[in-house]
Specification:
Blueprint (H helix, E strand, L loop, with lengths): L1 E5 L8 H10 L4 E5 L9 H14 L2 E10 L5 H14 L3 E5 L10 H20 L3 E4 L10 H11 L4 E5 L7 H11 L3 E6 L1 E2 L5 E2 L5 H14 L3 E4 L10 H19 L1
Parallel strand pairs: 1-2, 1-10, 2-3, 3-4, 4-5, 5-6, 6-7, 7-10
Antiparallel strand pairs: 8-9
Helix pairs in contact: 1-2, 2-3, 3-4, 4-5, 5-6, 6-7, 7-8
Length: 255
């Protein structure tokens, strides 16, 4: 499992400075965000960032789009795919609509599934995968709904991300992760608790250590740091080392 970064973690920095900060923290891969660093459809920026990433020795694991299935115009989805392809990313991250799973009607679920199937087919034609953001206010806000969406679409190039649901205590968060990780391609790693209080990773090690162990055993490809305390780059090397240590321990336990 590679240790990487979501570029949105360092929104205040330019893409060039993000890469410098990543190199100093010995991170291996990046998910470039579509909100600022690589805007969807801006192919010239995507080409430049791809070149700079390669020169820095940083792999581009994914393109973090803000395309919302069945909510955003489909042209925006195509723009996200185009940018991901120009970046040389392996996958594009999208959001599973704009309605919480508990409130969604059958038609609203079907609309999200249909748009996901359409996008997945377009992505596959270009050699791309699609990953679903695991987030409140969408159909992937909890495990049973997220897994149902995967079954409804049944596309081989669609996977899930996982991140800890807001305010979910350690034990139920681990149970939630265990249901998702066999179907996940990446984990967004951060420690918020309570609410959106941004803590160091070690603050939630009782949750993260078993999750990282399970992700390692499941073959999840990437662990991407996100939301460091105060959005301060000074924390990044220490947070990266904490995550690397947990992955090392997980590998040793599997050996």
């Amino acid at each position: 499992m590679r240790v990487g970064l979501c570029s949105v973690t360092l929104r205040a920095l330019s893409a060039s400075d993000v890469l410098k900060t990543m190199t100093a923290a010995r991170l291996q891969c990046v998910e470039w965000g579509g909100d600022l660093h690589v805007p969807a459809g801006d192919l010239a920026t995507a080409r430049r960032v791809r070149r700079d990433s390669a020169n820095a020795g940083v792999a581009i694991c994914s393109y973090g789009s803000y395309y919302r299935l069945a909510s955003s115009p489909r042209a925006d989805g195509q723009a996200a795919l185009d940018s991901a392809a120009e970046l040389g990313a392996a996958r594009v991250r999208v959001w599973a609509g704009s309605i919480p799973s508990a409130a969604a009607t059958d038609k609203e679920r079907a609309d999200v599934a249909a748009d996901l199937a359409h996008l997945a087919a377009q992505a596959a034609a270009g050699g791309l995968a699609v990953a679903l953001e695991y987030h409140g206010g969408t159909l992937t806000d909890e495990a049973s709904s997220a897994l149902r969406l995967l079954r409804e679409v049944a596309a081989p190039n669609v996977s899930l991300y996982w991140q800890p649901p807001l305010d979910l205590p350690d034990e139920p968060a681990v149970a939630d992760a265990l249901a998702i990780l066999p179907h996940a391609s990446a984990v967004h790693v951060f420690s918020w608790f309570p609410g959106q209080s941004r803590r160091e990773l070690s603050f939630r090690q009782e949750m993260w250590r078993p999750v990282i162990a399970a992700a390692t055993a499941a073959g999840v490809r990437d662990a991407l740091l996100e939301f460091i305390p105060g959005d301060d780059p000074v924390f990044l090397p220490r947070e990266a080392e904490t995550l690397r240590d947990w992955i090392r321990r997980a590998r040793e336990d599997l050996a």
